[in-house]
Write a structure and sequence with these properties.
This protein has about 120 residues and is an alpha/beta fold. The protein is built from four helices and five strands, in the order ββαβαβαβα. It has a five-stranded mixed beta sheet, sandwiched between helices.
């Protein structure tokens, strides 16, 4: 399951992944970006996956990056910091980071602590 809210103090979209997170869950989450009036032009995303476990293939990682590439031009900048404490989720995240590296205004970084992720987002 994926839930999100905007932290009004920081302007960061805080997203929480819980339980098994599938390719379909990720696609549905990204498609929320269609409601562009709801989000700032400089999109800062804090993705907390400490209680979530990704379950998709490396090919689906590529498709997710392609979907992000479609929406990226709607924003001036997108920074996504993911917090992870699981080796399997880390592996999926590294594959995704590699697949999304070609998106010019999109940055994705992997963190083990919330504070380090927030510090990176706000710099």
């Amino acid at each position: 399951m994926i839930t999100s809210h905007i932290n009004r103090d920081t302007g960061i979209i805080e997203t929480t992944y819980e339980g098994k997170v599938t390719f379909g869950d990720i696609v549905n989450y990204i498609n929320q970006l269609r409601n562009i009036e709801k989000f700032p032009k400089r999109l800062l995303i804090l993705s907390d996956s400490v209680h979530g476990r990704f379950s998709f293939t490396s090919e689906e990682d590529q498709q997710i990056a392609g979907l992000v590439k479609q929406y990226a031009p709607l924003f001036e900048q997108i920074r996504d910091a993911i917090i992870i404490d699981d080796p399997r989720t880390t592996a999926y995240s590294v594959l995704y980071r590699n697949a999304s590296a070609f998106i010019p205004n999109y940055e994705f970084e992997i963190f083990s602590t919330r504070q380090a992720a927030i510090d990176w987002l706000l710099t």
